[in-house]
Amino acid sequence: MTARSTQHTRPGRVRHRAARLRHTIGGLGAAAVVAAAVTQPAAAQAVGEVGIPIGSVPEPVVIEDLDGAAVDLAELFGETPVLLEFWATWCELCEALIPELEDAYRQFGDRVEFRAVSVAINQTKRSIRRHLERHPVSFPVLWDTRGRATRALQAPTTSYIAILDADGRVVYTGVGADQEIVRALGDLFGT
Predict the structure, then answer these.
(1) In this structure, are 54 and 137 located in the same domain?
(2) Same structural domain for residues 34 and 99?
(3) Distance between CA atoms of 61 and 102, rounded to whole angstroms?
(4) Radius of gyration over alpha carbons of the chain, in Å?
(5) Do residues 103 and 72 share a domain?
(6) Among 96, 89, 100, 121, which Cα is nearest to 163's?
(7) Are 123 and 176 within one domain?
(8) What's the average model confidence in pLDDT over 158-179?
(9) Which of 7, 10, 20, 93 has an alpha carbon within 20 to 30 A of 111's alpha carbon?
């Protein structure tokens, strides 16, 4: 309801409509909490049930590195396993994932191509570079200025991770701070 539409409505009627709306929204919120409580736990919902379906081969796309050079993701897919994290400098969940990602990189960095894919929302290459000066990561950071990688891997949000096997098929997807990336990579290599 806009301010203009309330000008011609009696004040009591506006209060009654507002109360009904609060009641409806409150009921929907309670229903959502109940539905979440009786379905799978959040961690289970976040792994393998978001983004591109497990077993899919993503569309090859070209994005950029932070210097503007083209990076063809097709050159990464299908030769060695690849881990892509969709992140942003302002993403608290992404920041919380860094210790797990760094641990995974230490254990599997010689067998897996790690890449951070910066989404082009409320950040620039310059702000990303400044952030990385203060908070460096061990693997290359890419720039998805037009959202091509985001669409190809159906990344629903930042903190989204997709792992592809050596054949270029998605074997893991997850979102949030509580992902078990080391375990997922261990499963991939049978360790």
Answers:
(1) yes
(2) no
(3) 26
(4) 21
(5) yes
(6) 100
(7) yes
(8) 95
(9) 93
Q: What is the pLDDT of residues 108-130, one digit of tens each?
A: 999 999 999 999 999 999 999 99
Tokens of 1: 């309801």
Instruction: Indicate the number of domains in the chain.
Output: 2
Q: Are 149 and 142 a contacting pair, CB within 8 Å?
A: yes
Region class of 147: left (phi > 0), else alpha (psi between -120 and 50), else beta? left
What is the C-alpha to C-alpha distance for residues 151 and 143, in angstroms, rounded to an integer? 14
Contact 114, 105 (CB under 8 A): yes
The CA-based diameter of the chain, rounded to the nearest angstrom, is: 70
Helix (H, G, I), strand (E, B) or coil at 78: coil
d(CA 86, CA 63): 13
Look up residue 104 and give its amino acid: A
Q: Which residue has the tokens 């997709």?
A: 162
CA–CA distance, 14 with 21 (Å, rounded to integer): 10
Which residue range is the domain that position 48 belongs to?
43-189
pLDDT tens per residue, range 9-33 = 344 443 444 444 333 334 333 333 2
Tokens found for residue 44: 């289970």
Averaged pLDDT of the chain: 80
